[in-house]
Amino acid sequence: MKYDAERLITDLLDLFKTNLNSRITKIQAEKQTLLGANNFDVPQIDDAAWFDALDDRVANFNPYIYYGLNDNTVIEIASAESSDLTAFFTVVLANDGNDPLISRKMLRYIRALQEISSRHFGDIAEASSLIVTTITPKDLKDLDTGTFHKIGGVAIKTAIS
Question: Is 3.40.50 the CATH number for 5-160?
């Protein structure tokens, strides 16, 4: 069976769903040791709060994960075919403008996503080496509700054949 973009997204989704909350917990414990009483909570991701970019469901979660495929470039040399794929996994966190720690929370989520990518990517045998790029936190306005959010995460580029 050919390993394709759909299988890559499914494998990455399983990887992040399995490891994200435990990685957040480890980062929180590290920060608690470092910051003590000055530490703050970073909410866990609900099991149902994962939304594919092609999903039309309303994301009534805070925070939630928004993921999908950015690029899929097919390279054909002679009779061999390879695809360069870029997937993204982002955390979306409501931002009413009154949370002075929101940027630091986003940095912790991004760190968790990066660490999972680097520590567990070998679990996906069909994908070649990867390049993980940070998607720096940005403001996002929900056009349906007018609510502002912060969004940040990782873009993962790999090649499959």
Answer: no
